[in-house]
């Protein structure tokens, strides 16, 4: 039996971010003992992946940033490029291996968070705290008693929702023989891809040099593709659209992100909370999660240090989630054409304002202005329809 003030379950982006914030000393805060329970190697451990986000100026994770950019580009289905600078923001790319290495070094340096490899089973409410049951890699039963528990494990399925789409993708890390990429800009959405019967698809290019990039094929639709289907789409995109004639695939990544207007429970027992995607950190209309979980974990760490109740805040404002619900229904029902919708937004709204909107940092007047630059009648119809839709379990 171990005892701690805080137990963090899971060593993905959310669990490691909270551990990192609790490990570093903070002026005026009370010291806390913490245990990070991370899954042993195997199916329970999250695969290597890439996270992207934007922020102004230097940030907490800069030592682990793989690449960053100040220019974004969107391609319309007919090939028209829309490019914009986003200064003072920078679009930043983190690879999970680099992120884990940085956090691991800081945890070892400060010694305030104990890391234990174990597969977590039940979390039992034991007032005034909770008891976490786990099993070590050698089969031994472990138990950790804590005042507060933060669970970052992914849900097996999202909660009931009016609309659920999946953002699913496969990416190739490619290396070319000849210079092929402009390392100064990201192709955020390239709609020069064959569009599916339902939803939308696009290419996504994150260059880290003239010869190297992460090239992804992404769909917003009802169901993922098979592995061969993703590879066919990537071969078409790299050869026909990007014109890459000779390159090596040095790595891959695959992911599925629910895009849903479900309401995620942030508290499952008096002392047990969810953080990260399981706690609603994913922005419903985009699938971006990293910035939302940073807001969550920063608020939780501050509350713990001040001795306040550490309920994780909503990662995205109520107004933003309501607008996302309308957009998801409009895309799901076919009321709007996805490529035309996003191309129109990027061509009519300043990029920095649009990114602030996607982070929930715009004022009501700015949001009305953005709304007027969308297909107004279809979006109003979607708003009227979504208000009457029942919430159903995800398929």
Give the second-level CATH assignment, the architecture of the largest domain: 3-Layer(bba) Sandwich
Give unreliable regions as ranges.
none
- Overall pLDDT confidence: 95
Tell me the domain tally: 3
- CA-CA gap between termini: 39 Å
Structural class: alpha/beta
Global geometry: globular
What is the helix/strand order? Answer: EHEEEEEEHEEEEEEEEHEEEHHHHHH
Strand content: 25-35%
Number of helices: 9
CATH superfamily of the largest domain: FAD/NAD(P)-binding domain
What kind of sheet is the major sheet?
A: 8 strands, mixed
Helix content: 25-40%
> C-alpha Rg, in Å?
22 Å
CATH topology grouping of the largest domain: FAD/NAD(P)-binding domain
How many runs of DSSP E, i.e. beta strands?
18
Q: So what's the CATH class of the largest domain?
A: Alpha Beta
InterPro entries: FAD/NAD-bd_sf
Protein name: Lycopene cyclase family protein
Pfam families: Lycopene_cycl
How would you portray this structure in words?
By secondary structure, the protein is α/β, with parallel strands linked by helices. The chain has three domains: 2-57 and 96-158 and 263-305, FAD/NAD(P)-binding domain (3-Layer(bba) Sandwich), CATH 3.50.50; 164-260, 2-Layer Sandwich (Alpha-Beta Plaits), CATH 3.30.70; 320-386, no CATH class. It has helices at 13-23, 96-110, 227-241, 290-305, 318-333, 338-348, 351-358, 364-371, 376-386; strands at residues 2-9, 34-38, 50-56, 65-69, 71-75, 81-85, 89-95, 113-117, 119-126, 129-135, 141-151, 164-176, 185-190, 200-209, 212-221, 247-260, 267-269, 272-274. Strands 1, 2, 8, 9, 10, 11, 17 and 18 form an eight-stranded mixed β-sheet that branches. The mean pLDDT is 95. It comes from Streptomyces doudnae. Pfam families: Lycopene_cycl. This is Lycopene cyclase family protein. InterPro entries: FAD/NAD-bd_sf (IPR036188).
């Amino acid at each position: 039996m171990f005892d701690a003030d805080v137990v963090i379950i899971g060593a993905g982006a959310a669990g490691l971010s909270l551990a990192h914030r609790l490990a570093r000393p903070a002026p005026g805060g009370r010291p806390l003992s913490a245990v990070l329970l991370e899954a042993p190697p195997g199916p329970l451990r999250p695969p290597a992946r890439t996270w992207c986000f934007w922020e102004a100026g230097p940030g907490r994770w800069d030592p682990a940033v793989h690449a960053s950019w100040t220019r974004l580009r969107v391609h319309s289905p007919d090939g028209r490029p829309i490019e914009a600078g986003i200064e003072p923001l920078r679009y930043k790319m983190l690879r999970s291996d680099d992120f884990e290495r940085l956090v691991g070094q800081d945890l070892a340096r400060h010694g305030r968070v104990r890391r234990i490899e174990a597969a977590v089973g039940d979390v039992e409410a034991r007032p005034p705290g909770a008891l976490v049951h786990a099993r070590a890699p050698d089969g031994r039963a472990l138990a950790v008693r804590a005042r507060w528990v933060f669970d970052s494990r992914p849900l097996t399925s999202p909660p009931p929702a009016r609309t659920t789409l999946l953002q699913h993708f496969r990416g190739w890390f490619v290396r070319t023989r000849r210079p092929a990429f402009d390392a100064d800009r990201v192709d955020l959405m390239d709609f020069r891809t064959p569009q599916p019967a339902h939803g939308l698809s696009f290419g996504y290019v994150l260059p880290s040099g003239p010869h190297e990039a992460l090239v992804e094929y992404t769909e917003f639709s009802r169901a993922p593709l098979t592995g061969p289907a993703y590879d066919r789409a990537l071969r078409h995109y790299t050869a026909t659209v990007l014109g890459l004639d000779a390159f090596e695939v040095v790595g891959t990544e695959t992911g599925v992100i629910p895009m849903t207007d479900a309401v995620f429970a942030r508290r499952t027992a008096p002392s047990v909370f969810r953080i990260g995607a399981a706690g609603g950190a994913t922005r419903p209309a985009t699938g971006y999660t990293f910035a939302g979980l940073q807001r969550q974990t920063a608020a939780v760490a501050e509350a713990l240090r001040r001795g306040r109740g550490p309920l994780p805040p909503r990662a995205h404002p109520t107004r933003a989630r309501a607008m996302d619900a309308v957009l998801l229904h409009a895309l799901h029902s076919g009321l709007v054409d996805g490529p035309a919708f996003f191309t129109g937004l990027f061509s009519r709204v300043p990029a920095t304002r649009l990114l602030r909107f996607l982070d929930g940092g715009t004022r009501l007047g700015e949001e009305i202005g953005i709304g007027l630059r969308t297909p107004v009648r279809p979006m109003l119809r979607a708003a009227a329809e979504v208000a009457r839709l029942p919430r159903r379990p995800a398929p």
